[in-house]
Amino acid sequence: MPTLTVDGKQIEFKQGETVIEAARNAGIDIPHFCWHPSLSISGNCRVCLVEIEKMPKLAISCSTYAAEGMVVYTQSEKTLQARNAVMEFILVNHPLDCPICDEAGECKLQEYAYAHGKGESRFEEIKNRKEKRVQLGPHIKFDAERCISCSLCIRFSDEIARKNQLTFIKRGDKVTITTFPGESFDNSYTLNTVDICPVGALTNQDFRFKSRVWEMSKTNSVCVGCSRGCNTEVWVRNNQILRLTPRHNKDVNNYWMCDNGRLNTFKTVNTSNRIDGAFIRKEGMLQKASLEKAVLFAAKSLKEFKSGEIAFIGSAYATCEDNYALVKFAKMLSVTNLAFANHIIPGDQDDILIREDKTPNSLGAELVGIKSGPGSLNLEGILKGIREGKIKALYVMEDDPASLSDEFEEALGKLDLLIVHDTNQNRSTTLADIVFPASTFAEKNGTFVNFQGRVQRILPSVATAEMDRALDGMEMSRWDKFGTEFDRWNQGHKYDAKPSWKILTMLSLQLGSKMKYEMAEEIFSEIANSIDAFKGLDYDKIGELGAQLKIKQTILK
Amino acid sequence: MPVQKRKKDLNIFGKLYIPEIVKGMALTLKSMFRPNVTLLYPEVRFDPPASYRGRPVLVQEPNGTGRCVACGLCARVCPALAIEVQAAETELEKERYPQKFEINMLRCIFCGFCEEVCPEEAIVMSKDYELVFANRNDAIYGKDKLLVPIDNLRARLEFLRKFK
Ligand code: SF4
Ligand code: SF4
Ligand code: SF4
Ligand code: SF4
Fold it and tell me: Residue A144 contacts by C-beta under 8 Å, 6 or more apart in sequence?
């Protein structure tokens, strides 16, 4: 491989890489605003200027190709001088908005000004005034004064979202961003521009002013909005999710995620219709009961049915661990009627990220064994069985069959026993005889298998009543570390919920089984030992970026 | 062990403490004619100098609005984690304001860091040293107690301009 020297360090590069890329791959970060590894090169911000031996002038490292034997200095006096000059130039018209700007704390301009700026300005004139609250499409507010005209947002919408909606208008220091006449910045991926905007010019309307970035903890997770399973970070303060941001994974979502996944998937975690504690139907009404009582009641009720009269519905929303526990539980009761519902919106997909399968784990549910075998009923069969009176008891885990069709809802009313696990109230839970409170994706450990057959981990970021951030090894902000029960900023509600596998474990103990799991990880190692596709995997091997399962391409849709 | 003898045994005069009593009475007499430093609190109250760090308060402009833009820097710098700020959006020119601003006076250690870090000169140390509460909840002061008209804070603001 060819090599070049950066700051005295010999580094290898691939032919066709630019200096900034080569340096970055070797762990040397050259300051940049307008460059992004996944977007075309623009070279307008000039902050990545570096000194290169035998070149008469400084060169911008984002558009200079690395060459054999090149000698680059990113910290030489000449480079630093140029960088400081560029910073001073950019700061001429940048408002002193940091105290009211959401970007503060994760702002490149702030960081570079701190590291490379002079600390004082020679500019004595009055700064440019521009519009500060422009609504650019449904989710984004644009502050024209803060924009440093790096054009990243324009390039993103042209090249990644493939919608030509944004453009520069005017010239010189009057230049600003706007949408084309008659257009709104409303494609499915707009909020990624908020992430890549190096300053606080573009802000997320949904998150705006909700929290300073340093007040939140962030936890690695996976989006549950569709079967892509974009890698995310979940930002939590006071036990509430305030925003999701994408996490880089070149094999799944690159640097991006869609607006729907970012804005809507976490809204079910902290909401008024969360199921908080277990419920049992008494005198026709669902009444709150302790989990232990509900488990005892469920065990007693299930015993009254023959195995042929019972059916189980698993879930493509639940983790592999939850579904595996359900399969095992069904086996224990010798029940073979086992199915899960697909949630596909035909045509609602693109060739960027969004998939028409709106669940995160349909492949995983199938792989761990939620499927009908020979002689057992599939979903339609279960519906038919209920209507004909053959199926008398239904156990539903984390799905809402009543919303699938009116017939299904009507059929659920005919059952002698309906047990439902769910996170939020829905049409099925209102019909249920016993409701168990399930933890959401943000409250448990587990794995999902995305449409590519890639198994990825979710980690708990929100604590339930049984959890403790410190003891359970969850990410903690400064506020989490030092808060006491008397601090109002530390009293965020903890829902009384448990992961479905835990509820199933409790229930199976009442029915005399040996299903004894303490941690999701134990279930996963059992999956890895018993199911070929998962062979050899464990949570460590899945790691932060997931692992590809060994499955036949034909299974992948 | 041999009994130690005192270096200087007192004579009868000394034993009666008469010179000491006379000395003491003389001091008392002198003090009766010195100016009084003790205040008859609570009838008479101490008015501290501008450099005094009493409880932190929020500056309220004459038009009734606060100066605070809810940047959260005071909450970040506070070594005792006494401050909680929740920002929200307004139509006013400074787009941001604290929807909730609470200081837990049981946590505050009167260090003045919040005042020092504030970019808006919105939080200052007042002269108020009378902090009494009967339970933990009363010790958490909200905006109603924290906002103080700027006219009552002129001396401190003056002091800060000069010495900060
Ligand atoms: S809005 Fe942000 S991303 Fe777009 S040009 Fe301005 S600074 Fe760059
Ligand atoms: S594409 Fe799918 S997984 Fe990715 S952010 Fe959108 S909804 Fe979530
Ligand atoms: S005076 Fe010190 S301890 Fe008190 S609120 Fe301010 S920063 Fe916190
Ligand atoms: S530092 Fe000043 S402006 Fe910022 S939140 Fe505190 S009081 Fe308000």
Answer: A130, A131, A132, A134, A176, A177, A201
